[in-house]
Amino acid sequence: MTVTLFIPCFIDALFPRAGISMVEILERLGHKVVCPNEIACCGQPPFNSGYWDEARAIAAPVLDKLKDSEAVVIGSGSCGAMIKKFYPELFKNTPQAELAKQVAARTWEFSDFLVTKLGVTNLGAKFPHKVTFHDGCHGLRELGIKSAPRALLGKVSGLEFVEMKEESCCGFGGTFSAKFPMISTAMGEVKCAAATETGADYIVSNDSSCLMHIQGLLSRQGSKLKTIHLAEVLNQR
Amino acid sequence: MKNTGTILSEREKILGRIREALKISAPLPGSHDEVTTHAHAESPASHAREWLPSVGTSAAEQFDLFAKNAADLKADFQLLNSREELPAALKKIAAAEKWSRIASHDGELSNFASTTLGLPVMLTDKGYDVQEMEKCDAGISECDAFIAQTGGVVVTSRSAGGRALSVLPPHHIVIARREQLVADLPAAFALLKQKYADNYPSMISFITGPSRTGDIERILVLGAHGPKKLTILCF
Amino acid sequence: MSFVSQFKSLASEKTRDLRHRLVIRTALRGYEIVRDKRKAAFQSWESARQAAAETKWEAINHLDEHLIALTSKLEARGTKVHWASNGAQAREIIAQILRDKKARSIIKSKAMTSEEIHLNHALEKEGFTVVESDLGEFIVQLRHEPPYHIVFPSMHLTRGEIKDLFQKELGDAPSDSPEDLTMVARRVMRQKYLTADVGFTGGNFAIAETGMISITENEGNARLTAALPKTMITLMGIEKVLPRFSDLALFLPMLATAGAGQPMTCYNTMYSGPRQPGECDGPEEWHVILLDNRRTELLADAEQRDSLHCIRCGACLNVCPIFRNVGGHTYGTTYSGPVGAVITPHLRGLQDWKHLSNASSLCGACTEACPVKIDLHHHLLQNRRNASANEPAFFEKLAYKMFAIVANEPAFWSLAKKIGWLTQPLQSLVKGSALDPAKAWTKTRDLPPQPLESFKDWWKNRQ
Description:
The complex is a heterotrimer of chains A (237), B (235) and C (463). Chain A is an alpha/beta fold and 237 residues long.
C-alpha cells in the first residue's frame, strides 16, 4: 500500500524523530511511504481560534494534495481529528465538501492504522522501561482511539506498562495554552502529578503536541520523567 | 382587567418567538447533521426497561433486590410473614425510639398499624395542625408501590395522608403489602397512570431512602430536612 | 473591569490556590467512583443517553405545543400559570404575588432560575425575608455568595469553614462534624417551614401530557416547601418540558446517576396542582412562572439548540478540568462549567462572554459525560467561530493570515524553521521575561529544543 504520511508542523520542526520512526516502521512493514513536501499544517490553530476562513486557506491546498492518496496516516490524534472530523465540518457547503468527506474516510491516526487497518500489533520493538500512556483528548474522544496504542505497547519486549489513576487533559489545547496560560499550566500540573505517581520512566503518547506541553512542565519542574512519542518506542530495537 | 391582558400577551410573545425559532429544523441527536423533522412513531424512552439496571425475573429475586437496594440507601426493610406480625414489629420500633405520639391517615393498613400501638394518633385526613404534626415521633402511611429497581417507595397525597405526613415527622413508616412490589420504574409509572388516569393526586412522590444531604464535604448525612429514618414494613 | 479581565484575574488566583485544587479534587473523587458504579449498573447507559437525547429533542423541537398542553392541564386543576419574557418580569410577577398575599417570609428550595434572575436580592430590597432551605444554598446564602456549583452549592467549603460560619451567623456549631452541622441547619429551618407565608421552588421537569412539574431533591426541603406554606410559587425555564409522564422513568435515574452517582435522588416529586378537593394539605394557591429570558434566542440557533436539552445535572462541571481548576465562582455566571460556557454567550451577549468559550482545551470530557448528549465542546468551537466572524480580533486574524501564507509555501516554512533554530540561543536568554515573545508559555513551561535537521530536511536528504 502507498501510505501518505502527514507530518504535522510541530513534528516536522521539533520532534522529527517521531516522524522518522513512523517512516521506518511503515517501510519495514512493506509499504511505500510518500510525504508531500508542500504540506506543513492541517489548519487547526486558526480553526480552533474561530478563524475558519484562514483555516480553509490552509486546509484547502492540503485536501488538494491528498486527493489521490490511498491512505493518509498522521502521528497525532489532534491533527488526525482535524482532518477526519473537522474538515467535513469546515468545508460544508463548499465545492470541496465531498472531497473533504472522502479524505476524512481514508485518514488514520498512526496507532489506529497499524492495529485496525493493518492488523499489526507486534513490531518486534524492545524498550526495557516502565512507561505510562497519555491519551490525547482529540485522539481519545474525537477519534475513539484507546485500545490501539495499548495493544501496541503490550507487545513491546521489556516494557512495563502502568496506567495513570485518572484520565485527564494535559492542558495544552493549542492556542489555549497561550491565551489562558494559568489554567493550562494548572491542568498540566495535575497531569504531571498523575504521571509521576505511576513511578514510570517515560510518558508515551500518540500526540507530540501534548507531550510538548507535559515535557515543558516536567523540565521546568526538574523532573526526571521523560516523554516520548509512541512511534519512537515502537521503533526501538 | 388590564393585568390579565399583559400576561396573555407575554404568553403569545413567547410562543411567537418559539414558533419563529422552530422554523429552522435542528438535526436529531446522533444523526450527524442530517436534518429531520419527523417525530418518532413511538416514544424514544419507551424501551427504558431494556437499559435501566436489571431487576431479575422472579418475585423472589425482586424482593431480594429491593432489600439490597433499600439497605444501600440506609432504609429499613422488614419483610414480615403475615399481617399478624405487624404490631410486634411496630411496637419494637416504638419502644426503641420511645415514641409518645404518632401521625397517620385513614386507611385499612394505616389504621391497623397506628391503632395497634395504643399511642395518641393524629390523623391528617380532615385537616390538621402542622405544629401538632411537628410534635409527632413518626408518620405512618400506606404507599402506592415499592420498586425493586430503586429500593424506594411511591406515595401520593391521596394514598399517604397528604403532602407532609411522609416528610415532616422524623421517622416515616410505610406499611405495604407484598403485591405492591413493582419491578422497575417503567412499571411504577404505568401503575400510576392506570390507577389515577386523568385525576392524579396533586402530589406524587418517589421516595428513595431517608432524607439525606452531602452538602458538607460530600459526606452523607441522613435527615437533612425530612425523616432521618425510613422503615418499610411489608407483609 | 471587563468580564474577561475579571475572569482571568480570578482564574490566575484560583489556579495557584493548591488548597482549592485539593478541596475540589477530594470532593469530586468520591463522585467519580459512585457515578461509574451507577452507570455500570445500567444495562445500557449509552442507549439510555441516546433515548434521553431524542426525548429532549422531541420536547424542544415542539416546544410550543408542549407548553400549551402543559399550561392547559395545569390551569384545569387551578394552577395559575404566568409567562415571563425576562428576569425583570419574573421578579415583578413574584413580588406582586407576595404583595397580594401580604406575605412577609418566603422559604425557598433550590432553584437556579432564581439565581439567574437575582430574585433574592430583589425580594430582600422590598423587605421580604428570604430563606434558602437547601443546606448548601443556606450555607452560601449565609456567606452572601452565589452557589459555587449548580448541584453542590457549597462544595468549595470545608467543614471547618462551615463550622466557623454557623458559629458566627447562627451562634450554634457544636462541632465540625457534617452530622452536627447538618442538624444545626435542620433545627434552624424547622420553624421557618412552619411559619413561612410562601414556599418557592424551581422545577426539574415539566410533563406536558399530564400537566405536572417534577422536582428532584435529596433533603426533603422542597417537599416541605410545597407542603406547608399556603402559597406556592414555582419558577422554571420554558425548556424544562418532557412530552410524557413515563419519560420520567428514564430521566429520574439518569439525572441522579449523572449528577451525583445515585440510583435515584431521594425525593422525586410530581406536582399537578394546588391542594385538590378532598386533600388534607398543600398550598391553597400555586403559581407557576414560565421563564424565557433569552432561551428563545438559543432556540433560534438550530446548531446549538440541543443546549436547551440540559437537565442541569452538573456532570459536565464535575468532569471539566477547567472548572476543577478555576472553580465555580470564577465564571461570574449563574451556569458555570462547560454548559455555562456554551449558553452564557447566548443568554448574556457573545462578545462579553466569548472568553468562556475560549477558555477551554476542547478536551471533550463534558460531551462524553452529558446524559442528554449535548455536543458541548463543539458548541464552544462554534461560539469561537461566531465571535470571530462577527468581531474579529485584528492582530489575531492578521497573524493567521500570515501563518497561512507561511504554511502554504514550502520555502517560507523552511525559512521559518531556520529562523526558529537560529534564535534559540536568544530565547534562552529572555526566557519567561517581559522581552520574551513566548512568555505566555515560557513563564511556567520550557520550550522543546529545536533540532537543526527537521523531519523534512531528513526526508529530502534521504530521497
